[in-house]
Design goal:
Layout lengths: L2 H6 L3 H5 L7 H12 L7 E2 L2 E2 H6 L2 H7 L2 H8 L4 H16 L9 E3 L14 E5 L4 E5 L39
């Protein structure tokens, strides 16, 4: 009863086989076109990066989560604005295709805005400045999140004085 239906459709194996009209060169070009990598376009809450750069401050604030939104609504002091001005200047002075000069800052509580994307910021961690290249995925986060301020614990053998029993170990 279903044999007539099977004869009219081609199996997956028959579809992938090259026909006699197709030459090996055409087959190779078709394979290369399929293997070409397509990159996912970045979007922040449904808005693409190019559109984010065109937004004014009020429209951008509406896209941010509550804590950064509250911070922007209360007004930005002079220091974050001067950091953005320095980043703009560094981006202007660099040749196309190169990274701008790192701008050092102690402002770990500065929220990454779309204008900062592509800049290099030296974020202070309490001891040194960690270079952070601002990427689109960082929008809405704090700069301090990308410069760890502590040294992660490396668990190993306990040292002398770590426990009460270590007092009785001779020091050779």
């Amino acid at each position: 009863p279903f044999s007539a239906h099977r004869n009219t459709t081609m199996s997956a194996e028959e579809e992938t086989r090259p026909t006699q009209e197709e030459t090996p060169d055409e087959e190779h070009e078709d394979l290369a076109a399929r293997q070409k990598r397509t990159f996912k376009k970045f979007s922040y809450r449904g808005v693409e990066l190019s559109a984010l750069l065109d937004l004014n401050t009020e429209e951008l604030i509406k896209l941010l989560p509550s804590r950064p939104r509250r911070k922007f609504e209360r007004g930005l002091p002079r220091k974050p604005m001067s950091l953005i001005k320095k980043l703009r200047k560094a981006k202007r002075e660099v040749q196309v295709g190169e990274k701008p000069v790192a701008i050092k800052t102690h402002l770990r509580n500065m929220i990454v805005v779309p204008e900062m994307v592509g800049s290099v910021v030296g974020v202070h961690n309490g001891k040194t400045f960690n270079s952070v290249e601002v990427k689109p995925e960082m929008i809405g986060h704090y700069l301090g999140e990308f410069a760890i301020s502590y040294k992660p614990v490396m668990h190993g053998r306990p040292g002398i004085g770590a426990t009460h029993s270590s007092r009785f170990i001779p020091l050779k």
